[in-house]
Queue: 4 jobs
Job 1
Amino acid sequence: MIAFKEWTLICDALGRGTQSIILRKGGIAEGRAGFRFQHYEFLLFPTLFHEQVAKLKLPPETAMPEQRPDLEISLRARVEWTREVADLDAVRRLAPFHLWRDEVIEERFRYDEKQSVSLAFVRVSRLVPPLIFPDAPRYGGCRSWIEVPDLSGETAAEKVLGDAEHRAREQQILAALCD
């Protein structure tokens, strides 16, 4: 099964329903073509990157989860639409809809000669029960997409946001992109 590597605290925000977008420039291992949302349904693989608290709009006392011997994936995302956003002002208008600090998003935007970020508007569901499996070196590295074990046939998925709230947020995000 395919999984998308994202910071643990961003996965938490997606799982709480406080965030419905993913902004990405790409990882070191994305290759010459750069990053793109090449999968439209995937599991969210939370990554423990300890500097993330300083790079997010969170209180500095926010605690990172402890590293455990087993990995746990509790969220699935379905991409409803994507945009390559090449207007920095439009990217800045998205600030109310994500946790990344402005300077982090601007750094991603300006990372290479192609000044832009990839945006995905996602519908997130919580997996019941979560997928739990042993950590292994193949899950490491600076790449966005990885293969993880398949879900059990007994796994259910419960939408994090109701339909009305999800659609209202979508309209707010689209309006921010078009202002």
Job 2
Amino acid sequence: MLATAPDAATAERIARTLVEERLVACVTIVPGATSVYRWQGEVRQEGELQMLMKTRSSLLSRLFRRVQELHPYDVPEVVSAPIEHGLLRYTRWVAEETRAADAERGNQGG
């Protein structure tokens, strides 16, 4: 999953919370991004950080909601893209690190 953050403190806070809650196995924070976009009728340009989040597809809806709760933007960028291929040991690690959140989801009825 991909998201942006306005500054390092926000990105780190979101990343730490999501890892602690086991909604993601890892968040890679990439500084130095520049976003050019239209907002409220005006073209804007802002420095941001890109967050690359590794999780399982069964957790995406919870992860989308949680990022929105944690994020300071009214409309944060939160998008997902499937991983078609990956090193098996890595994808197993992602699955293991997020298993508890997925099991919790099952206990809550989805």
Job 3
Amino acid sequence: MQQPIVLISIAVGIIVLFLLFGTALKPFRFIGSLVVKLLIGGLLLFFLNILGTSIGLHIPINAITTVITGILGLPGLAALVVIKLFMV
């Protein structure tokens, strides 16, 4: 008679642990992926500046350009290049 109660208790305990630790880790996953995207954005800007020196193209690496390139990716980088070439 005790076996079903023990199994149900263990199952409920495991579900509660997954719910508690799963929700606690979601903000850290989001922050981690955001940091990785920002690092990739900074690297894209760095390589663009290395390759762009031959044609006179330089986009400064600062917080705003890194965020734009990191969040939007290559379309963001292309937008920064278009802004640099046609607006400035």
Job 4
Amino acid sequence: MAEDELVYLGRDPLNAETRLDRQHGLITPASRHYVRNHFPVPRAPSALVVDGAVRTPLRLTIDELRSMPSRSLVVTLECAGNGRAFLEPSAPGEQWRLGAVSTAEWTGVPLRDVLAAASPAADAVEALFVGADHGTPGGLGREITYERSLSLSDAMHEDVLLAHAMNAGPLPPEHGAPLRLVVPGWYGMASVKWLTRITLIDRAFEGFYQKDRYVIDGEPLREIAPRAVITEPSDGASLARGRLSVRGYAWSGRDPIERVELSIDGGKTWRRAGISPARSATSWRPWQLAVEVTTGEHVFVARATTASGAEQPLIPRRSALGYANNGAREVRLRAT
């Protein structure tokens, strides 16, 4: 990855934001896709084991998985902590601004095909996904691997993929090569990287990243909350008065984006923006609106609303660890 293609929050483990001001079009190149790693990149697993409450345990090599029927899906992934840096007082965790989000085309084997081949037992209720990455989280005091679970019904959704390719190319190491889970519509913590084992279990999983992290009020996080961001102009910009094209992106994992509205007076009045057609139900949608800007200071803000009427809040939503903070962000600029 080129040094200037990402905004680095940490190198080991690697955590870096995409530069949304450089995002054009739908797909984020792999080299500019945000990275959220909890531990150092591990040695690549050579196979995937499926065991636990199954009638037919499996061990599939990566080559065997690549040879299975695959499908491709455009998916927006967002870190649950995106926007945490704007909370006051601050919340613990990586201090993401708004760049912990990107969109890629993922190619892989539908998870339900592999689970069906393993033949879940009657008492299986969850699928536990185990990554090869491991380390000691702050405050825990012992080494663990990264693990998350899905209910069996969620795991059997047709769009959940065991991805082995990204943007029609090899899956990069920092993005989970050779195999990762992709759970469309959910925050990125569900899409376990460096996948090495799937264990079907007869109870609710209570591991660290299921019960202590990525939870709000004791409930594990699920679908991405609606959000619209302004990518052009940038905050603090100085520009000439007159006609200006404002653009950005909007997304939601809960239900489709219905509209994006833009205010250039700090939320007093709103205009509806034009939105590009959806490429998939779980990918962001570029939006754009031309406005007339007079001389002086201006406060731009965008908000998204979903088909069910869920509206992006204009103020931050705070949780103890700063998760799912989808409050709209102001962009301040000066026209001369």
